[in-house]
Write a structure and sequence with these properties.
With about 190 residues, the chain is mainly alpha-helical. Helices cover about 55% and strands about 5% of the residues. A three-stranded mixed sheet has the order 2-1-3, with no helix packed on it. Helix 7 packs across helix 8.
């Protein structure tokens, strides 16, 4: 039994209502796209069949974003993601979890927390592959996990030349260069904020 997934594409802050980006349906066209993407649907709007939970069992104890894992689990089982094309849930941005993610420039502690949570999301997907194998997806997910590991490494400080060369081999030159540029930007913004 497949139940529809319903998007929450609006937020509410005080008296102001605003539309924010919903995931595009094509982000869930293939398992490969979902594995390499951070796209998800807000958990308050999801509906799932019980047998999916029976198949995969519990989540990792450190997982925060169950909504990310559920979309991936559904796709692993060959179940499409479907939508109700109207807002069904209003979300108050700036309270709870969204205070970290909505910040214009999160500080070092917030960045580490976000990156750690995103890494855990990928590790949950890797764990789920054991219960619904998709060998080609494992390589994609390992590379995604390495990207978050690299970002966390840059938050700790600058890696030396030998370590940087290893990261280039693991994540690619473009991503490593991107992390260097982000680190420079974050250091500047951290100093300006202090």
């Amino acid at each position: 039994m497949i139940l529809p997934l319903m998007p929450a594409c609006y937020s509410w802050s005080g008296e102001k209502r605003a539309r924010f980006d919903c995931p595009r349906p094509d982000q869930f066209d293939s398992l490969e796209q979902a594995a390499a993407s951070t796209a998800f649907v807000i958990g308050a709007t999801e509906a799932w069949a019980r047998d999916m939970f029976d198949h995969f069992g519990d989540f990792r104890p450190d997982l925060i974003h169950e909504d990310h894992a559920l979309v991936f689990r559904s796709l692993l089982l060959g179940r499409p993601i479907t939508y109700v094309a109207r807002p069904l849930v209003w979300h108050r941005q700036g309270s709870g979890v969204s205070t970290i993610y909505g910040s214009r420039h999160p500080g070092p502690a917030e960045r580490k927390l976000m990156l750690s949570r995103y890494l855990i999301d990928v590790l949950q997907k890797i764990d789920d592959l054991a219960k619904a194998p998709a060998p080609a997806i494992g390589q994609i997910l390992e590379r995604e996990a390495d990207k978050y590991r690299l970002a966390l490494r840059f938050e700790e400080g600058w890696p030396g030349p030998v370590e940087t060369a290893r990261w280039v081999r693991r994540t690619g030159p473009f991503h490593t260069a991107r992390m260097i540029a982000k680190r420079l930007r974050n250091r500047l913004l951290d100093r300006l904020a202090a």
